[in-house]
Design brief:
This protein has 388 residues and is of the alpha/beta class. It has a single domain, classed as Aldolase class I (TIM Barrel, Alpha-Beta Barrel), CATH 3.20.20.70. It has 13 helices and eleven strands. Helix 2 packs across helix 10, helix 3 crosses helix 11 and helix 6 packs across helix 9. The C terminus is likely disordered. The structure holds ligand V47.
């Protein structure tokens, strides 16, 4: 334990000096038994970067189609063909309607992700963006993962830059971080053989950053990967960030086991979530934000994670499908009031941001404009009522 402690203290000194941590440091931290010491170290970095602020936004999700040619073993959302049960593809009118239904809500972002559909034309993906921008030109469209961009490039005979430029002309604002899974070839072969490789995923983001887009990055954990492969994944993201500076947020994504071909692996535990957030905060010194996606880890862990390196809780979300089809029992939406309460009670200052982290509203402990922050609003209970 004493040699362990000495090694931990040595890493802590590196963190305080701003020296990037090594692969071995990352693996050591993942295995370090004192969870609270690890959390406190990550919290130091979090507070150095963001003080007491915890960010959230007001967003919702649209998944225009779940028809997908990829065969990702962990995925419960995709259906191989149109005629399979629960397969769907939305018309442009249906997509338009999703936004019209929310025209009185202060939504600033729509998160759009699809399956890899075998025969929709490229114009469908451009039109999905256009119809939304026609209704709300100011709304930010965070759309299409690097895996989709790679698929479009191959299918429609374009370079990554050509795909991205056409989508930008149609209203694309940034890329979400999905599809990264785990970069290690060994794990990728078992999880998602045949979809974009690690190098292709990274190259799409490199191209996006060169074109001036911001993007997020993710890591799927709790499947077949080793701790070493998680650390390797984070370091590959850090290396690209060193080159481009275009990543805004890293989002660890915890595996949900229902309704997919990978099946009943034990779900990652609360301690694993907190360790992963803390190690990510410490290894990814050059990525500004670490996000706890409450949809996946639940509101309780999301709340505690604010002391383990996390400074962002994503958003109101609404209509999430990817995790709920995989058995997530979290609510499908939180109101702004509920998010503010989660943050306040963790002793942090809630900051409503837009997608690019411009501040829209900062909690001064008073009333949220137009919305009551009511202590009787339940938040730590699964299946929350959706509030306005
Ligand atoms: O790439 C799919 C993961 C991702 C399962 O950029 C699963 O702001 C666990 O990327 N269990 C999509 N994970 C979600 C995503 C995301 C979410 C929130 C915010 C942002 C952002 C991005 O979900 C997929 C895959 O890694 N996933 N199925 C499952 N059964």
């Amino acid at each position: 334990m004493n040699t362990h402690r000495a090694r931990f203290d040595e890493i802590a000194r590196k963190v305080d000096d701003g020296t990037p941590l090594s692969f071995d440091d990352g693996v050591f931290l993942y295995r370090y038994p004192d969870l609270l010491a690890l959390g406190a170290l990550a919290n130091r970095v979090r507070e150095r970067l963001h003080g007491d602020r915890t960010y959230f936004n007001v967003n919702f999700h649209i998944n225009p189609t779940n028809v997908c040619v990829a065969d990702c073993k962990f995925c419960s959302f995709a259906r191989l063909t149109e005629d399979m049960p629960q397969a769907y593809t939305m018309s442009l009118d249906e997509i338009r309607q999703k936004l019209l239904d929310r025209k009185d809500q202060p939504v600033t972002e729509i998160h759009i992700v699809n399956g890899l559909h075998h025969n929709l034309p490229f114009s469908y993906y451009e039109d999905c963006l256009r119809v939304l921008k026609e209704i709300r030109p100011d709304i930010h469209l965070k759309a299409y993962t690097a895996v989709e961009i790679h698929y479009f490039a191959e299918k429609f005979g374009m370079t990554y830059a050509e795909v991205l430029e056409r989508l930008m002309a149609a209203g694309l604002g940034s890329l979400p971080g999905g599809g990264a899974e785990i970069f290690a070839e060994r794990a990728r072969r078992k999880l998602c053989r045949g979809k974009a490789t690690a190098e292709q995923w990274l190259e799409v983001h490199r191209t996006a950053h060169r074109l001036g887009l911001r993007s997020n990055c993710t890591m799927l954990y709790g499947t077949v990967e080793t701790l070493e492969e998680r650390v390797d994944h984070m370091l590959r993201l850090r290396a690209l960030q060193e080159e481009t500076g275009g990543f805004q947020t890293f989002i660890p994504l915890a595996y949900h086991p229902e309704g997919n071909a990978l099946g009943k692996l034990p779900e990652p535990t609360g301690v694993d979530h907190l360790r992963t957030y803390a190690v990510a905060r410490l290894l990814l010194h050059n990525v500004p934000h670490i996000k706890a996606y409450w949809i996946m880890v639940g509101v309780d862990i999301a709340q505690v994670s604010q002391s383990f390196g996390v400074d962002d809780l994503d958003g109101t979300v609404q209509e999430e499908k990817i995790y709920h089809m995989a058995g997530a029992d979290t609510p499908e939406a939180l109101s702004r009031a509920q998010l503010v309460r989660l943050i306040r009670e963790a002793g942090r200052i809630a900051v409503e941001r837009d997608t690019l982290y411009n501040v829209r509203w900062e909690d001064d402990g008073g009333r949220l404009p137009g919305i009551r922050v009511d202590a009787s609003v339940p938040y730590s209970h699964h299946r929350l009522p959706v509030m306005p």
